[in-house]
Write a structure and sequence with these properties.
heterodimer, A: 438 residues, mainly alpha, MetI-like fold, extended, B: mainly alpha, 16 helices
Chain lengths: 438, 480
């Protein structure tokens, strides 16, 4: 029987394998996979290009060209009528520009009488040199008549030229640095007079209309004030609110309302918090404009939902057995929370707080509305004084026309990103180190 | 005595009460009866009794005395100049603040006073007049008197509270219960801050918006097609400018649409790849990198669009079209593209949660029937996750609509109505920033319109969030 069956089914007549489109389906599978890889690559590429372009534009901002000259505080120039004993304002009003120019001319071997050459010397040294020399002499009048080595910042154009950012093939009339100045620059550089040094001014100076003397000092101070306020307010209120909602609140209309509110606040656009700050804190409560305290409170309200959500998750992750053990040994609910649950939840709370702080540090829009877009040259002594913030300073530099400001702006972005990365890294490490699986 | 010093003293009294209470509680001997509360609770209770009423009194007193002095100054100014003078009384107040810095009684004329103040680096409004000096001096002495009175009363209250608290210490005293009740009250009031914030947001914007609608009809705001606020004509009456929402709303939605066009496919595909294909090593490398994208502040994206991407797109288009750039440096495309990239991690992390929430049994069933992975994703997982993904897209869209810094830097400020993605359009958030930066005069429609825009934005995003959360929650329940 089986033999017959075997011969009755000749191999040749077996129907060819039904076309179920496997090839097409596998091709579709491979394509789909490719789409996924392409999507991720696109995201990562964009990240790389963005960071790359910022770093390539900004790393030069950490160096600043300075010119070290022997400057003679010539009494004949500063105080020709010899009145400084009776009238100290002579020292303040003197023509320090000229002193600096002459020092430079002497270094380059130019005859001070040659007016056309002297005119071309202008624009090599920064205008800030004048103030620097003045402050030196006012602080120490015994310098009068002596010659001292002074490091003066080069002007922004010189700085750009020395860093090779100015295209020298452009016709001379259309660029800001003239051929003669370039020759001098190379001469000075060869003598070691003109050097690139680490740009401490970027971290210490306040706002300025000259790129070479503008820095992030005030912005960093303002941001630190605000972060301090956010840390205190948002952490205290956030943790207190989370403890109430997670550990004490009975399910009621009110607690439901609070929860819905927190979830919605987390998604409210940040600029709306700026409007709140402007209308309530500045207009209604009469707090000062541009002050770090208003910015801090506004950012605290903005960060609060993030911290509450993180804290509640951390509290909920503490196992009920801990609570039961504490209650069983006779602790009150309050003691249970503060002595046992809260310490165990602390790493999670801190991680959430740092992430919330990082978000607040990078936030710009609400600060624009409460007037932190301000030209602040002096450090804020208290949080009530006018200040700016890091991202706002970046925004203000983005609106400047001069090329040198773009460099500073990119440098400032690098600093901001380093801050943020440090914070996020701390959060990650904290989580790694203290994370507990129950 | 300034209220701050008074407050510091009150705190000192509170600390004293704390130590005294704890000390007394330790000394109390109940014989065979064990004390109800431990000593530190007795101390804390005494401290709270000392601190809370005194602090409350200080707050009320300093607000009240400030209002009183303001009224007094204003009255004096009105008596002098015979007209209502808000600005003058403000000048008197800053003068009073300046005079306080001097160690001696100020001279009678501004001519003598100004150089004295200049030495201390204080400059006053140039139109501060001589008659204000005595008023300022009087206001200062009044401030001093009120400060001393209030400070002393507050200290007395604190002292009484401390004594009362310390005297209450006894074996049967339920100090812990009382302290904990107050703590609970504090925790509860912290949790109401969220509600207060929402109320603050809505009310503050509502009042300004109502004031705005007093000048401009709601109809012409909501349906006007021309945005031309005319800053120069502020307050001059007559030509008031036009405040049409439509061009701004169109720009906002257009840019958000372009952003979603970028973010949703890319974010969704990367989430699918990460959840279904990637090995755990790739996952552990790529996921933090994508999260890094989410951690970069939006101003950095905006600057990248402004400084690098915008000019690059313009130059590319100029090269393509032979000289004439058809893409402007600030355009819908640039802003939408960059915002889309910013939103990729938002979409991908939200949809990652949703995709991993689809039960494994559904995957196994599909794969077991012979479907490839991509077919499983396309025919089983995505349909099952669809409601959740819709919710995620809505949440993302609300982020896109409320995003500010990218559009401020990359989208332009001209309120056009155009369908061409290569041109510039502006958004609601850009206009809020524009109307409110620089010097403002709080009562002109040019300023108030920002609040009307803000409340529009608030309600649009609120509606989207509520809807999205409802969808996501409903979906989550489906598989639990």
């Amino acid at each position: 029987m089986t033999d017959i069956a075997a011969t009755a089914l000749p191999v040749a007549s077996r129907p060819s394998r039904r076309d179920i489109g496997l090839k097409k389906r596998y091709a579709a599978e491979a394509r789909f996979r490719m789409y996924g890889i392409a999507a991720i690559t696109f995201g990562l590429m964009f990240l790389a290009i963005m960071l790359g372009s910022i770093v390539s534009k900004g790393y030069t901002a950490f160096w600043q060209t300075t010119i070290t000259l022997p400057v003679t505080f010539d009494p004949a120039l500063i105080d020709p009528q010899d009145k400084r004993a009776s009238d100290p304002s002579v020292l303040v009003k003197a023509n320090y520009d000229k002193i600096a120019q002459q020092a430079l001319a002497a270094k380059l071997g130019i005859n001070p009488g040659d007016k056309s050459m002297m005119a071309r010397l202008k624009g090599i040294l920064s205008d800030s040199g004048r103030i620097q020399l003045r402050d030196m002499l006012v602080a120490d009048p015994s310098l009068m008549g002596r010659t001292v080595e002074v490091s003066i910042l080069a002007s922004a154009n010189m700085d750009s030229a020395f860093k090779g950012q100015i295209d020298l093939s452009v016709p001379e009339a259309r660029r800001k640095v003239k051929d003669q100045q370039v020759t001098w620059m190379n001469q000075l550089a060869a003598e070691g007079v003109l050097t690139k040094q680490f740009n401490t001014g970027l971290f210490t100076f306040g706002a300025s209309s000259r790129p070479e003397t503008s820095g992030l000092g005030v912005a960093i101070a303002g941001s630190l004030y605000m972060m301090g306020i956010v840390l205190v307010l948002a952490l205290l209120i956030g943790v207190a609110a989370s403890i109430y909602l997670e550990e004490f609140a009975a399910k009621s209309r009110l607690t439901d309302l609070i929860e819905v509110n927190i979830n919605n606040l987390a998604a409210v656009p940040s600029i709306v918090f700026g409007l709140l700050g402007l209308a309530v804190f500045i207009n209604f409560l009469g707090m000062p404009r541009s002050a770090a305290v208003v910015g801090g409170i506004t950012l605290s309200l903005m960060t609060l939902p993030t911290i509450i959500i993180a804290t509640r998750a951390a509290l909920a992750a503490v196992p009920p057995s801990i609570r039961q053990a504490a209650l069983g040994l006779g602790a009150s609910r309050m003691q249970m929370v503060f002595h046992h649950v809260l310490p165990l939840a602390m790493p999670g709370i801190l991680t959430g707080t740092i992430i919330g702080l990082a978000r607040a540090l990078g936030e710009t829009a609400p600060l624009l509305l409460i007037g932190m877009v301000a030209f602040v040259a002096d450090y804020p002594a208290t949080p009530l004084d006018p200040a700016t913030a890091l991202p706002v300073q970046i925004y203000m530099w983005a609106n400047e026309a001069e090329r040198a400001f773009v460099e500073r702006m990119s440098g400032a972005i690098i600093i901001l990103l380093v801050f943020l990365m440090a914070m996020n890294l701390t959060a990650i490490l904290l989580r790694r180190k203290f994370e507990r699986r129950w | 005595m300034s209220p701050y010093i008074a407050f510091a003293l009150v705190i000192a009294v509170g600390l004293l009460a704390c130590f005294a209470g704890a000390f007394r509680a330790r000394a109390v001997d109940g014989g065979s009866i064990k004390a109800h509360s431990r000593p530190q609770y007795h101390g804390a209770w005494a401290m709270l009794l000392a601190l809370l009423p005194a602090t409350a009194f200080l707050i009320v007193w300093s607000i009240g005395s400030n209002a009183f002095i303001d009224k007094h100054v204003e009255q004096a100014v009105v008596n002098h100049s015979g007209e209502s003078a808000r600005i003058d009384s403000m000048m008197v107040k800053s003068l009073a603040r300046a005079v306080r810095v001097l160690d001696k009684a100020p001279p009678a004329t501004m001519a003598e006073l100004s150089p004295l103040l200049a030495q201390k680096n204080i400059t006053l409004a140039p139109n501060t007049v001589d008659y204000m000096i005595p008023i300022a001096v009087e206001a200062n002495s009044l401030t001093r008197q009120l400060g001393w009175t209030g400070g002393l009363i507050a200290l007395a209250i604190a002292g009484l509270g401390a004594v009362w608290g310390v005297r209450q210490v006894a074996v049967r005293q339920r100090a812990r219960d009382k302290v904990e009740r107050i703590m609970l009250g504090a925790l509860f009031s912290a949790s109401t801050i969220a509600i207060l914030t929402t109320i603050g947001i809505v009310l503050s914007m509502l009042f300004q918006t109502i004031a705005f609608f007093g000048d401009v009809s709601p109809w012409s705001f909501l349906f006007g097609t021309v945005w031309d606020p005319r800053f120069a004509a502020a307050g001059s009456g007559g030509s008031q400018g036009q405040f049409g929402l439509i061009p701004l709303l169109a720009g906002t939605l257009y840019i958000a649409f372009v952003a979603l066009l970028v973010a949703v496919p890319i974010g969704l595909m990367s989430a699918v790849y990460m959840a279904e294909y990637a090995s755990s090593r790739v996952r552990s490398l790529v996921k933090p990198a994508l999260e890094l994208l989410a951690g970069i502040p939006t101003i950095v994206y905006g600057i990248f669009a402004l400084v690098t991407l915008g000019p690059w797109l313009r130059d590319i288009s100029a090269a393509l079209a032979g000289g004439y750039p058809f893409i402007q440096a600030q355009s819908i495309l640039t802003a939408g593209l960059v915002m889309g990239v910013m939103l990729i991690p938002v979409v991908s992390s939200l949809s990652d949660d949703i995709i991993t929430a689809v039960p494994q049994a559904m995957r196994d069933g599909s794969l077991g029937l012979g479907a490839t992975r991509s077919e499983t994703v396309k025919r089983v997982i995505l349909p099952a996750a669809l409601p959740g993904i819709v919710g995620a897209v809505l949440l993302t869209a609300s982020r896109a609509i409320g995003e500010t810094m990218i559009v401020v830097l990359a989208a332009g400020v001209a309120a056009n109505l155009t369908a061409n993605p290569f041109e510039a359009m502006t958004t609601i958030t850009v206009k809020i920033v524009n109307q409110l930066t620089g010097d403002l005069e709080f009562n002109s429609p040019q300023t108030l319109v920002a609040f009307a825009l803000g409340i529009t934005l608030f309600f649009v995003t609120l509606a989207m969030n509520v809807l999205a959360l409802a969808i996501v929650r409903k979906y989550r329940e489906q598989y639990e």
